[in-house]
Amino acid sequence: MAAAAVRDGDPGPTQELLVAWNTVSTGLVPPAALGLVRPRKRAAGPRGVPGIRPWGSLGSPGSPSLASPAASPPLHPFPTCPRLSAPFPSPLCVPSLRSSALQASSRTSGAVPPKEEELRAAVEVLRGHGLHSVLEEWFVEVLQNDLQANISLEFWNAISQHENYADEPQCLLLLLDAFGLLESRLDPYLHSLELLEKWTRLGLLMGAGAQGLREKVHTTLRGVLFFSTPRTFQEMIQRLYGRFLRVYMQSKRKGEGGTDPELEGELDSRYARRRYYRLLQSPLCAGCGSDKQQCWCRQALEQFHQLSQVLHRLSLLERVSAEAVTTTLHQVTRERMEDRCRGEYERSFLREFHKWIERVVGWLGKVFLQDGPARPASPEAGSTLRRWRCHVQRWFYGIYAGLRIEELFSIVRDFPDSRPAIEDLKYCLERTDQRQQLLLSLKAALETRLLHPGVNTCDIITLYISAIKALRVLDPSMVILEVACEPIRRYLRTREDTVRQIVAGLTGDSDGTGDLAVELSKTDPASLETGQDSEDDSGEPEDWVPDPVDADPGKSSSRRRSSDIISLLVSIYGSKDLFINEYRSLLADRLLHQFSFSPEREIRNVELLKLRFGEAPMHFCEVMLKDMADSRRINANIREEDEKRPAEEQPPFGVYAVILSSEFWPPFKDEKLEVPEDIREALEVYCRKYEKLKAMRTLSWKHTLGLVTMDVELADRTLSVAVTPVQAVVLLYFQDQASWTLEELSKVVKMPVALLRRRMSVWLQQGVLREEPAGTFSVVEEERPQDRDSMVLIDSDEESDSGGGGVAARRVVPDLTGLCPQLFWTYIQAMLTNLESLSLERIYSMLRMFVVTGPALAEIDLQELQGFLQKKVRDQQLVYAAGVYRLPKSCS
Amino acid sequence: MKVKIKCWNGVATWLWVANDENCGICRMAFNGCCPDCKVPGDDCPLVWGQCSHCFHMHCILKWLNAQQVQQHCPMCRQEWKFKE
């Protein structure tokens, strides 16, 4: 009707316009907002706004408490809008307008806002004057001012009360109240917003599109309200959301008949069971964390729901809760992970976590009001939830991979058992970009935990083998292995016993690297002879996967993929000759020093190695083994001949020989030795028998090798010993002459003085000889009390050896090393007296440095020494603690 | 003191009783084997000629087979006869 008046040429168009404007302005915004323009002192107003009141009792715009600013009616319908102030003089300056303005406002300042039709009519009038274009802008402006001056302050005021509340239920109520207040304040605006949108749709207003206006309003709202958010507010929100999640999770558990669906599935794990019972027994509610009697889970859920609804209506949901939700999720995921996964490699956690994530997403649906049948999932809502799920999953993969990467060294160490962890990690790595992190972290862990002098070579090799197995599962292209384990290979190259350890492992001699023997006996080994060079000869083209970016382009992918443990180990040195030579000398040692070798096993090993290294390099070893077999046959032959002879022609003692093909064995040390007459005769007899057996061939004895068992009969005791021929010969000279000077003996034996002295040390050790004065040796026919100590040692030593009970006794085969450990024992005692305490490795390396008493002694390896020392510990001649050996107090 | 030896396990290498180290034909050590063989000793024996030169049996046989007319010792060019 107003529009009609305009068209009819009504005499008071200005007045009519003003009336219309007043109608619209008072209709659209709450009167308080219009009062704003007046004295700035209003700015202090919100302080006076009544504080928090119980939910529901908040005043509505018309309620007396809020009516105070409206008591003086809005006289200025055009607040701070400079563009408007020019064409529209302030109503204050137009006295004639005042009454109608008052009239209009008095109508609205009552409980009843102007009817929609009235407003619409007024808008029509404005439209007639072309003013409709500014209406929206004005609306936003007013809202912004109101927010700045009143609402925001009021809201934060209410929030700041939370400092008085320590416990969560109260905080939650407060938050609810504060947002309720906010909503009630904004309610008129939102209502008007709807009207404006409607008019825009009807074409009354120009609008920037309805969506534009709404967005603008919400942006303003968020901008002004959260222009500066106090830290404490964020913290409170976060704490409450954390609680909400826990309450929700707990309620889900309870909701399904009291059993915990999550725990049910995993009650088989002892850990989970323990945790479950702890939960049952705890007096506190797992959800809200308060006493079970005072559990407020139910209220909490309701209140959270209300809060979410309020926030949703205000479009503040994302703004207020997104950050808190994110932080909470991160925190909870991390906690859960630390709690369950750390150190636990033997089962996969992926499925469990996927289930858990689904439940978390259920919670998110609750937070963002997108679940429940009441609200049909709109595509938009679905996408939000999808986004969140994606986020949670990615976050989970990221930190799970991070955790596993951090623990990778331990995982690798435990490998066959930790396979689930490796597979989890593989799955996660495919989804996160943490390859570099993995490489760096693993390398660092290797450097600090493995590659230092404190670790046995054999342990390093064992770990390397596990790493090969584990990382192959993780990365079939083997690039991670290649890159991360390069330090191990580099380091192993610097250890001198690497080859020996690997070879020993291959032949199943050492305990630590037994895997290698198994690996060796696997069928279809990758031959080291012919690296498969052809690039794409194997597999379906469909299955082809490119190499990772960090692969070394210089190496062919298929070769890398096909390399197995043994070829990787052997390639540490880049050449297999080293290994073959080492194997050969190791085999020689075993054959010559351990008369108790097992031919079948050695033959099997050689055959297996032939598969790997090829026929030709192993040829020498084959001949060596054949020599052993031939020798046995020849010995049996000769023995048979001997037995046919009459008793008087029988040799005084049995002579047996291992007859070697010199060209095929590693070179031997050649020691000259003048053998006493009777022995030489016996050996020559044997030699003649051999010559008879094999025409045109003869024997050359190697006295440094071999084993002589004999009884040494002294006045008061008899020793039964097994020594090398040289040692035996030396003692034999003492039979005829009880005392020798070193020089004399050296001339007779034809052995350099220094060497002779070393050889004789065994007998000094045994208490058979003594050096008195220096350089003169004589037989100790009767033991003197001060020598008794060492004699006791020997007795106990031999006893436990022959008993064969312990590990040590099995390892230190008595008749092969004979007196050797005993010899070491003096050295060890001297070392420990001087240096107090030493580790096994230290003792070993010092022995190797100082004790060079012949091949038989150099033979002892770390394990044997360890066995020997352990025996000493058992006999209480040594004390072992904290990784070092020391002498017991009384002994020193 | 009396030492009573119970058992003497010695180690020895075998060698051909020959006046040379290497086979004059293949230049390999007598104590090794000829290039065609894998195992020395019984499987790759030496033979002596009446000229007192000796060779791996396989080597000299190969040589003799290659000789068209008369069979000479490759070292001294005397007629080759196996030493009985």
Automatic annotation (TrEMBL), chain A:
Similarity section: Belongs to the cullin family.
Taxonomy of the source species: Eukaryota, Metazoa, Chordata, Craniata, Vertebrata
Lipid metabolism among keywords: no
Molecular functions per Gene Ontology: ubiquitin protein ligase binding
Descriptive protein name: Anaphase-promoting complex subunit 2
One GO location term (cellular component): anaphase-promoting complex
Quaternary structure (record): The mammalian APC/C is composed at least of 14 distinct subunits ANAPC1, ANAPC2, CDC27/APC3, ANAPC4, ANAPC5, CDC16/APC6, ANAPC7, CDC23/APC8, ANAPC10, ANAPC11, CDC26/APC12, ANAPC13, ANAPC15 and ANAPC16 that assemble into a complex of at least 19 chains with a combined molecular mass of around 1.2 MDa; APC/C interacts with FZR1 and FBXO5. In the context of the APC/C complex, directly interacts with UBE2C and UBE2S. Interacts (via cullin domain) with ANAPC11 and with UBCH10. Interacts with NEUROD2. Interacts with FBXO43; the interaction is direct.
Occurrences of domain Cullin family profile (ranges): 566-764
Top-level taxon in the UniProt lineage: Eukaryota
PANTHER family per UniProt: ANAPHASE-PROMOTING COMPLEX SUBUNIT 2
UniProt-listed PROSITE patterns: CULLIN_2 (PS50069)
Single biological process term from Gene Ontology: protein K11-linked ubiquitination
